[in-house]
Amino acid sequence: MLSFRFGTVGSPIATPKKPGGSVGGIQYARTIGLDALELAWVQGVRVSESTCQTIRSMAEESNVALSVHAPYYINLNCDEEKWPRLRKYLIDAAHYGNLAGATDIVFHPGTYFGRPVQEVLEVVLPRLQGCQDEVRASGNLVTLRPETMGKSAVIGSLEDSLALAHAVPGVIPCIDFAHLHARPGDGSMNTYKEWMQVLEAYRQELGEKSVENLHIHLSGIQYGPKGEKNHLILEEADLDFKALMQALTDSHARGRIMCESPVMEVDALKFRDLWMEISGEKPD
Ligand SMILES: [Zn+2]
Questions:
Q1: pLDDT band at 139 (very low <50, low <70, confident <90, very high)
Q2: How far is the CA of 284 from the centre of ligand 1 (A)?
Q3: How many whole angstroms separate alpha carbon 195 and alpha carbon 250?
Q4: Region 29-56: what's the mean pLDDT?
């Protein structure tokens, strides 16, 4: 078995129309050699409990590990008045995701609104703690995963993500390496040494075992001075995927690598091939 499962964020593009949807996406992912899928509930959580049950059965039968990308509207730093409505997106993603068999709920933490990080964290941390408490109180064991983000104006530097995880036990970052590369906007964060520093910081903050359960987003990425512009296919990207895979190999990392490139499953399979090449691992 490989140390990483590979998949796409959202159903693979070539998923056949019937049965389509998440169930079809899971089936199709398996037929092409992928073994993870992130359900892209990014425009809202609009799924019934019975559909969740069907998704769960199909994922178990297919041995495809599931996560959820929660709606984009979540913003832990929004106005007091908006918060009850926005937090519900995260709570619903966790509830229905759990019913569907997902183990991880990825979300975008929100924006700074131009305020200093320290001030923002004072607002954000108790809110995230409240969400985490509510999820656990309902007996739900999913991991809430704030994503590292590609634009410098939004919450989600490596330091921010680790601060959230540190303050709220049970919360663990989703590491988007493309975003980490795009965020400084100067082409940095793209060498073996820098990736090793990221993984070391992660390990320091979250413990020795934490790198054995990584949830990674990966794609090529275009960026400017303010960070991320758009995702790119692997061949058009300046990201040093080989150096990254080497750093993951040398860190004895495990988990899932979820592809967000415009050609989704095509690049997910290329990441899988590259992983096998660099790590020397072979499938059973
Ligand atoms: Zn995302």
A1: very high
A2: 31
A3: 11
A4: 97
Give CA–CA dist 251/228, Å, rounded: 26
Tokens of 279: 């790590």
144-175 in b/e burial notation, b at 16+ Cβ within 10 A?
Answer: bbbbbbbbbebbbbbebbbbbbeebeebbbbb
Q: Give dist(CA 34, CA 177) in Å, integer.
A: 20
Q: How remote is the CA of residue 141 from the centroid of ligand 1, in Å?
A: 21
- How many whole angstroms separate alpha carbon 22 and alpha carbon 52? 10
* pLDDT tens profile 233-242: 999 999 999 9
At residue 274, what is the residue type?
A: L
Distance 235 CA to ligand 1 centre (A): 21
Residue 124 tokens read as 């954000």
Residue 82 CA: distances (Å) to CA of 44, 73, 89, 108, 236: 16, 11, 12, 16, 40
In CATH, 4-279 is 3.20.20.150:
yes
- C-alpha distances (whole Å) from 109 to each of 54, 57, 85, 199, 246 are 30, 30, 15, 21, 29
Q: Are 216 and 8 in contact (CB under 8 A)?
A: no
Contact 156, 179 (CB under 8 A): yes
Answering whether pTM is above 0.90, one says: yes
Tell me the CA–centroid distance for residue 70 and ligand 1, in Å.
Answer: 8
Handedness of CA 31, 34, 35, 40 (dihedral sign): negative
